[in-house]
Amino acid sequence: MACTHALLCTQKRRLILVACALLFLAGIVALAFFLGKHHHSEIPPENWKGAGTTADLYEIILGRCDDYVMFVNPGVRNKDCRKLYQLFKASVMKRNQCNITTVDYEELFQFSSSPIPCNQSLLWSKTSDLAHLYAKSVPNILTLEDTLLGYVANRLSWCGHSSNSGWNYKSCPARYECDNNPVSAFWRTASAHVSGSFAKQACGVVHVMLNGSIPAGAIKPDSIFSSVEVPSLDPVRISEVRIWVMDNIDGPDRNSCSSKNQTDLEAKLLERNISSICVDNYWPVHILQCVRTPNESACKSKTG
User: Fold this and answer.
1) Number of folded domains in the chain?
2) Among all residues, which ones are annotated catalytic?
3) Residue 180 — φ and ψ, nearest 5°?
4) Is-contact 152 65, C-beta < 8 A?
5) For every residue of the chain, which 3-state class applies, written as one string?
């Protein structure tokens, strides 16, 4: 009986030790879970207010790039579209998505740049559809979106994560959340900031199309046109800036060449030794508006 009792005591001790070990391990697991959860809660979730990365971004960029170098502008056929995509992606990955700068995009734009012929540049602000319609209708007129990177990125949305190299398809920073978001920084870079960008290359006669119907005025001080493109125009390369203030075809007529912000623009250009002329509702552009909407009263009164 003594031997049996001793055996039972030994088994009990073993069971107690095993139970203690299991409780100890469970405590470690619980502590690790708590610390991990607490740690991740300190990392701000990248849930932005803007639209997420465009679906199938890789396929869209490659497809547009191939189309551009093969058919739109065969003069840049030597550009490697897959390398362009890799540079595009590397510009924003594993970075603070509210602190993307023109420096981040510089290698991409240097790789993708090509010369812009003189007398062909068309800058625009709040006239996107009309400016691009005019560029498609008139030979030898180019907008930023007619360059390789402008063509590739037009109307796309994209952003990455600060902690990994994947696209964020759920949401991206809206401009009101942070101005240094991936898309805004891209277009600032494309417009002016790096060597070979659109405004810096402008030469000869430069065309500008502004909107005369918006309440805030034809030129907003914080627009890319006003804050980035205008300061980047090179007086040595430019002979004249031709400004067209175009009202929406159905109005209203809020701004014109005599409006204060327009005369301020001309004065700013003159200070930099750049001459300019301004025309309200430039007739060839107005005709294009009427081709699209011939029944508008503004078209009937002038076309009979």
Assistant:
1) 1
2) 118, 203
3) -90, 45
4) yes
5) CHHHHHHHHHHHHHHHHHHHHHHHHHHHHHHHHHHHHHHHHCCCCCCCCEECCCCCHHHHHHHHHHHHHHHHCHHHCCCCHHHHHHHHHHCCCCCCCCCCCHHHHHHHHHHHCCCCCCCCEEEEECCHHHHHHHHHHCCCCECHHHCHHHHHHCCCCCCCCCCCCCCCCCEECCCCCCCCCHHHHHHHHHHHHCCCCHHHHCCEEEEEEEECCCCCCCCCCCCHHHHHHHHHCCCCCEEEEEEEEECCCCCCCCCCCCCHHHHHHHHHHHHCCCCEEEEECCHHHHHHHHHHCCCCHHHHHHHC
Give the separation between CA 150 and CA 128, rounded to whole angstroms.
13
The verdict on residue 24 lying in a domain is: no
Distance of alpha carbon 64 from alpha carbon 81, whole angstroms: 9
Residue 227 lies in a domain: yes
Look up the domain containing 227 and give its range: 45-303
**pLDDT tens per residue, the chain (304 residues)?**
444 555 555 555 665 665 565 565 655 545 555 444 433 333 345 789 999 999 999 999 999 999 999 999 999 999 999 999 999 999 999 999 999 999 999 999 999 988 889 999 999 999 999 999 999 999 999 999 999 999 999 999 999 999 898 999 999 999 999 999 999 999 999 987 555 579 989 999 999 999 999 998 888 888 889 888 999 999 999 999 999 999 999 999 999 999 998 999 999 999 999 999 999 999 999 999 999 999 998 898 654 4
CATH of the domain at 90: 1.20.82.10
Is 60 part of any domain?
yes
b/e per residue, 51-87, with b = 16+ CB within 10 A? Answer: eebbeebeeebeebbeebbeeebeebeebebeebbeb
Q: Which two tokens stand for residue 208?
A: 């500008």
Asked if residue 54 is part of any domain, the answer here is: yes
